[in-house]
Amino acid sequence: MAEAYYSKASTIFTSKPPPVFTFLLLLVLCILGFYTLHYPHPAPSLSNPEAALRYRQIFLSSATNGTLASYLRALTQHPHIAGTKASLDTVNYVLSKFMDLDLETRTANYTALLSYPVYSSLSAHFSNGTVVDIPLAELAESANVVRPYHAYSPSGSAHAKVVFVNHGTDKDYRALGKLGVNVSGCVVIARRGGLPRGVMVRKAETQGASAVLLYTEGDMFKKGFERGTVMSGVGDPLSPGWAGVDGGERLHSEDSEVLKRFPRIPSMPLSAEAAEFILGSLGGAQSPPGWPTGVGVGPGPTMLNFTYQGEKRVENIHNVFAVIRGLEEPDRYVLLGNHRDAWTYGAVDPNSGTAALLDIARRYALLMHLGWRPRRTIFLCSWDAEEFGMIGSTEWVEQNLVNLGSKAVAYLNVDCAVQGPGFFVGATPQLDNLLLEVTKKVKDPDSEGATVYEKWAASNAGTSIQRLSGVDSDFAPFVQHAGVPSVDIYYGRDFPVYHTAFDSYSWMTNYGDPLFQRHVAVAGIWGLLALHLADDSIIPFNYVSYANQLQAYKGVLSKLDGSVSLYPLTRSIQELDSAAKEAEDEAKILRQQETTGDSVVLKKRALNDRLMLAERGFLDADGLQGRQWFKHLIYGPPSDYESKLVFFPGVADAISRSSRMSRKERQAAIEHEIWRAARAIERAAKALRGDLS
Ligand SMILES: [Zn+2]
Known about the structure:
This protein is an alpha/beta fold. The protein has 3 domains: 2-112 and 317-535, Aminopeptidase (3-Layer(aba) Sandwich), CATH 3.40.630.10; 114-314, Glucose Oxidase, domain 1 (3-Layer(bba) Sandwich), CATH 3.50.30; 543-689, Transcription Elongation Factor S-II, Chain A (Up-down Bundle). Helices cover 41% and strands 16% of the residues. It contains 22 helices and 14 strands. The chain has helices spanning 2-14, 19-38, 49-61, 65-75, 85-100, 170-178, 197-206, 256-259, 272-279, 351-369, 391-399, 401-407, 432-439, 452-458, 475-481, 505-512, 517-535, 543-560, 567-591, 598-614, 649-657, 663-689; strands spanning 104-125, 131-133, 150-151, 156-164, 187-191, 211-215, 228-229, 267-270, 303-324, 329-339, 376-383, 408-413, 423-427, 486-491. The strands form 2 sheets. Strands 1, 2, 4, 5, 6, 8, 9, 10, 11, 12, 13 and 14 form a 12-stranded mixed sheet that branches. It has a two-stranded parallel ribbon with strand order 3-7. α10 (351-369) packs across α17 and α13 (432-439) crosses α17 (517-535). The longest helix is centred in the last third of the chain and has 27 residues, at 663-689. Bound molecules: zinc ion (ZN). Zinc ion binds at residues 339, 349-350, 386, 415-416.
């Protein structure tokens, strides 16, 4: 369909008309131009649901996998780690694509403390006296790729016996303790899975290890090294809580506030191949149950000689935006965001998402040529320095906090858009219904005649929607700091070349998405979500889902600790549920009313404001104890990553903190956090009702 549209358009403009016709054409254009400028436009029929439906259909039918492939190819020509010349080239590429489409563009620049490797070496000294240098790169693929490293690792050396610590969790260290194994002074090797990278390093540090090597298991790409950050928290470490603008306040890089975000022992990634080679030589006790079988855990006899030298530098980072002004409510924002910086070539992470973002821009521009203007303003956001710790998006959210808090309807994130087969999504719960509806409209990329929804519903997990408590992509500042309803979508998960030099265009065309149909599906879902959020006269949020989700969380809590009273939650969830049902009824009535008279316009706007602001109710000005930047009391990371709770982070913290307290103190600490969560839910309910008490 789309190709037919384009070939038709191009024949009109490529055939050369005779001069007389050209003159007449110009005359007509001048007259039309005069009328356009001087007479009121007929309001583009946004309030007309049929026109909006037609635009959505054109959006879906104008997908072309060839275009998506060409964007991805261009973006992945070179590795483009943040703060480098190659990264700046991708800034200009994205900007020029937006400009070619005649879209309004802008950039937001910040300075941030980034971290790069200078030197690294590793050799294994075996008990038979042989010494083997371990290669620390992916060789052929990695000519221009940054050498494997952990951003923000301190420089350091270690020459010590090796201990294998499985996933490096507290449980794993306890298992080692039972075997009489102490990792103090040793070089620890751990396999990824479960804990964030930085948390693994810190746990090893707490155990007294002198250095950490992390590897990622895989059958196909055993030579890959998983680069990544080990910084805790999000955003530029020199401007915590405020935007790192040029000339603005900046902490000293040796300030204790800055240093506390980095581990104190050095670490590096290791390939699975190298890890297996070293682990195969370990003696000591055999690995406990649940660990890889037939491996000794050490310490030694193999010794490792490890050196890592890195440097931290203040660099410029650049966010790029395209803006499509809303016609009726220009001061309401729907944001689509994806990061652009990559550890290596970034074909999956993140530029499959960037290709989708650019294709959405192309298709929105097409709709604009056909007369469409969104009701609300759409921002297409291309973030920088996500890989170092969501820096570009966090600085921007911090800089725009008040405007986002009062005017942002939703943030739709896509990071590793296409990793393989299968649809996955995370969202704040008021967006659940919209996700189900939108996936019913998009063709499944892997089965003829089915929709994404049908295949998703038939999958093992059904249409399960994850929640956004993690801090692994750019939705974190929007949800956890600003309280903006958010979505995170992707195809496939756990792709084997994550953060390695093999995350290239050729991996995508060989394994990830050879025909780019999954890219088409992601762009379709993403763009369609935004069209509904930007154009529907009533914002398509449903807080009944939120109340139901909170009710389920209460059920989990009641099983965790019977002695704690959940009464405050019971009452506040009931309040949210009834406010949500009232809002639904009101929306039903207003949806049927033509938006003509001023009073209907104002009533819709008033309901929309309440729907938009209800999520902000979950924020707490004081934030989580000891981690005040995290303001959301329903979704956020627990400080103890082995917590069973992936919601109510304050309650999760209280539970893990209270293990050393008396029974009475423990109950009080947990109940206080339950009261805080309940008050947050009550605030959301009040915001949804809109009236003062
Ligand atoms: Zn990413």
